[in-house]
From TrEMBL:
Protein keywords: Isomerase, Peroxisome
PANTHER family, A to Z: ENOYL-COA DELTA ISOMERASE 2, PTHR43684
Taxonomy of the source species: Bacteria, Pseudomonadati, Pseudomonadota, Alphaproteobacteria, Rhodobacterales
Cellular location(s): Peroxisome
Superkingdom assignment: Bacteria
Record family assignment: Belongs to the enoyl-CoA hydratase/isomerase family.
Name of the protein in question: Enoyl-CoA hydratase
Single GO MF annotation: delta(3)-delta(2)-enoyl-CoA isomerase activity
Pfam families, per the entry: ECH_1
Region (Disordered) residue spans: 243-279
Protein's organism: Paenirhodobacter populi
């Protein structure tokens, strides 16, 4: 693993840190590969329920290290470089939570589109400068940004490449919430801990359903009703209803390692699970 990627785990929350503050956490091929490996490792580790991603120092990531980028241009290879990192983010079945401290530029911003929850410090700034650099947008941003922001705002972001401050990012829906810089990590950790107390299998199921494209809305409604009926007899639902009757918080810990048949894999080619690639 690159010296510029560190991991730490407290409880069921694995934190992955980009640690190159002297270069504003600019990403090299080695850092891409280490980040991808760290995400895949956390996703496969049964002791991990939530994966957090952040940067050290005053930046989340300033994007590609230009010198390294020119020396090693990106290739369409899902096991290495930018593509490898984006595939690891896309394939992750566990919740991905980003804490954006400072600038997020280029792929440092587009990778956030693959996270499930994004929180920002008040000084956070976002920029997607691809067109002005003579480059095409990347990270699936030409698909994901129009879905998230609408076509007009997505065009503004990608055509002009201007800075987006934290308040505008919140208003536009790029981030879930903005905190004072000094409070960001503690607030994100609090939310990650809350997620870790949820039933792990159901978190993965809800995420997969949101990622999987249904053939129609009616088909998805039918699928959800079927899943509700099947999950009613499983341990997580029994514990939740028992806890309500006993007026106490539910304890899903004993069930975290259990896989149940009520979480079937996606079957169509556009499905989230179907996109996973062998290592």
């Amino acid at each position: 693993m690159s010296d510029h990627v560190r991991t730490a785990q407290t409880g069921a929350v694995r934190t992955i840190l980009i640690d190159r503050p002297e270069k504003k956490n600019a990403l090299t091929r080695a850092i891409y590969d280490s980040l991808a490996a760290a995400i895949r490792s956390a996703d496969a580790d049964p002791t991990v329920k939530v994966i957090c991603l952040t940067g050290t120092g005053g930046a989340f990531s300033s994007g590609n290290d230009i010198g390294d980028f020119e020396a090693q241009p990106p290739v369409s290879d899902m096991k290495t470089g930018p593509h490898g990192l984006l595939c690891a983010l896309r394939d992750a079945e566990k919740p991905l939570v980003a804490a954006v401290n400072g600038m997020a530029v280029g792929i440092g911003a587009t990778l956030l589109l693959h996270c499930d929850l994004v929180y920002a410090g008040a000084s956070a700034r976002f920029r997607l400068p691809f067109v002005g650099l003579g480059l095409a947008p990347e990270g699936g941003s030409t698909v994901l940004l129009p879905r998230l922001l609408g076509p007009q705002r997505a065009s503004e972001v990608l055509f002009f490449g201007d800075w987006i401050d934290a308040r505008k990012a919140l208003a536009w829906g790029l981030v879930n919430e903005v905190f004072e810089d000094a409070d960001l990590i503690a607030e994100v950790r609090s939310r990650a801990d809350r997620l870790a107390r949820q039933p792990a299998r159901l978190l993965r199921l809800a995420k997969r359903l949101m990622k999987q494209a249904p053939t129609s809305l009616d088909d998805r409604i039918v699928e959800e009703i079927d899943l509700i009926a099947r999950n009613l007899s499983l341990p997580e639902a029994k514990e939740a209803f028992r806890a309500m009757r006993e007026k106490r918080p539910p304890d899903f810990g004993p069930f975290d390692g259990q896989e149940q048949a009520a979480s079937p894999p996606c079957s169509d080619g556009s499905g989230f699970a179907a996109q996973r690639r062998p290592e």
